[in-house]
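Deviation from plan, reported transparently: adenosine-5'-diphosphate complex.
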Amino acid sequence: MIKIKDLTYQANDKLILNNISLEIEQNKITGIIGKNGSGKTTIIKHLSKEIKSKNSIFIDGKDIDNFNVKNYSKKIAFVFQEIDRTEGFTVKEIISLARYPYKKFWSDYTEEDRKKVEKAIEQFSLEKIENRQLTYISGGELKLTLIARALAQDTDIIVLDEPINHLDIDYQIKLMKTLKEIKNKTILMTIHNLELALKYCDNIIILNSGEIQDSGAVEIVINEENIKRAFNVECSITECMGEKIIIYKQK
Ligand code: ADP
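Because the crystal trials were delayed, the predicted structure below was used instead.
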């Protein structure tokens, strides 16, 4: 379980995160929402250790600062917004890299490694493009590839930074459905599409100017009042074709 305790971060005299405390529920999908600049990516940068923290973030009771690189990679996988596509890897090769933390330096990938990679490729229906170079796949296929890689990494936790940005609505739904189908993993993601968050996330954290405005079960936390406060936009949450929809008042 991820626990964040009194996380405060300041850069260039600007307070970016102010005393954040959170517990991320195990084996659920938690969405972090909030305005641009509210601090979502900064939290993920702390989790990925791009920004160092001490005594503030714990996984299964252990300060993340005390995990070595290999053990941390076996615990938590990250799907960032973009990766360098130009390095000449194929889809299968990039997914296989996920097995690196398990590899002994003198040996090749094991049968288990190969099975995990095959399973991830199958789960995301990537067989048709598995031998294609990353430069020749679409943005949606790349996102699925990166999530497949995170799955092949065989961690308890997957963290995704805005995984559905820049994808068409068909791919957005496909991707959220795929994440929902992953069992027995804790998934934490930043997300801007509140309707998809309503449908596919279990829990929501709302960040507002570096502070937690509200957190809890999605159906409680995503409400008209919270949206007004977090985004300064009035809205009405209603239902259409059996789905919850949000109608935003255009100013
Ligand atoms: P979000 O992901 O919610 O859009 P970020 O976490 O990227 O927000 O950024 C939060 C705020 O912190 C923004 O206002 C951003 O400009 C600011 N910020 C991030 N890093 C730095 C830095 N190194 N120096 C100054 N300000 C920063």
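The radius of gyration is 19 Å. We consider this an acceptable substitute for the interim report.
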